[in-house]
Amino acid sequence: MPGQKSIRTLFNLTGLILVGFFIFISLRVFHPELMIGQFQSLLQRPNVLIAITLLYGTAFILRAAAWKLYLKNRASFRKCLAGLLYSLFVNHLSPVKAGDAVRAAVFKGDRNVSLGQAAHSVVVLRLLDMLVLIVFAGAGFALLLGSFGLNVPLVILLACLAGAGLLLLWMKFPEFLRKQTLQLKEGLHGVRGMAILCLIIVSWVLEAFVIFGVAAPGSLSFLESIWVNSVTVAGQVFQVTPGGVGTYESVMTAALVQTGEAVQEAYGYAVISHVFKFVFSYAGGLAAFLLLPLPVRELTTFMKRKERDRNGKS
Predict the structure, then answer these.
(1) Could you say which of 90, 111, 136, 154 is the most buried, measured as most Cβ atoms within 10 Å of its Cβ?
(2) Nearest one of 249, 183, 206 to 19, comparing CA atoms
(3) What DSSP letter does each residue of 140-186 carry, written as one string?
C-alpha cells in the first residue's frame, strides 16, 4: 500500500538521521580513555554486573510468563522463553526487526497453539509493551519536567506530534487500527489481562536496572533510569541497523543529557549498556537453542519473509 510504504520510508529516514547523529556525536565526544575508564568502573563492580545480568534476564522470564498466561497456559514456558530469546538474538543480527516473526515461529507444528494464534499473541503483547513504554516515557516527562530542563511548549509539541501520528494512522489504516484496538482490549480483559499487564510492567522496570547499574553510582536515580530506558527502547521502532546500533545510542545519550549527565559520560553509558545487551542477546540465542533447537533454515525463512513484508513485496 502506498500509505504504508510512505510511513515505512519516514521511519527509515528517521532511523538514518539518528544513525547520522550517532556518527556525528561519536566524532565529537568519543575518547578511548574515558570509555575504557567507564568499562573498568563497571568491571570493578562485579556484584553490580551480576545483578544487572540477573535482573535483565528476569525481565525476559516475566515476559515469557505473561505470554504463557495470554495463551491460557496452552503453551509451555520453555517455548515462550525460547521464543523471546530467539527474538532478541535475531533483532541483534538483522537490520530488520524480524524477531517477532521468529518468536512466533517456535510454535510451528505445535499441537496446542497454532502459528496463527502465536502470531496474534505476539502482536498483542508487543502492543502492550509499547503501551507501557509510552506511559513510562510520558510520565517521566510530566514528573521530571523540572530536572530535565524541558519547557511546556516542547511537551505540547511532542503531544501534538503523537496525536498527529495517531490521526494519520487512523486516516490511512482505520481497519488495521480497529483490529489492533480489539486485540489490545482482549489482551487486557479480566483478571488474567491485569496479571499479564503487571508482569509486563515489572519486566520493563527490571530492564531499567541495566542503565542504572552501568551509570556511575549516584549519578542517575532509578526513576530517571526507568524513563531513559523507556524512551530508548521506544525509539528502537526506527531501527535500521542490527540491534539498532546508532538509534539506541543517539536516543539514550539525548535522554541522559536531559537528566543532567555530561554529553561525554552519557555517550559512554549508552554505548556500554548497548554492548551489554548485545552480549546478552548472543548468550540468549545460545540459551534459546539449548532450550528449543530450531534449524537455521527455519530462522532464515522467517527473517526473509519479514524482509519481504517490510519492502512491500508479495
Answers:
(1) 90
(2) 249
(3) HHHHTHHHHT--HHHHHHHHHHHHHHHHHHHHH-HHHHHHHHHHHHH
Q: How many CB atoms are closer than 10 A to CB 59?
A: 22
Among 215, 204, 198, 282, residue whose Cα is nearest residue 252: 215
pLDDT, one tens digit per residue, over 9-53 is 777 888 899 999 999 999 999 989 989 999 999 999 999 999 999
Please give the pLDDT value at position 189.
Answer: 74
CB-based contact 20:250 (threshold 8 Å):
no
pTM greater than the 0.85 cutoff: yes
**Residue 65: pLDDT band by 50, 70, 90 thresholds?**
very high
Rounded Cα gap, residues 298 and 314, in angstroms: 19
Radius of gyration of the chain measured on its C-alpha atoms: 19
Q: How far apart are CA 95 and CA 90, in angstroms?
A: 9
Residue 313 confidence (pLDDT)? 47
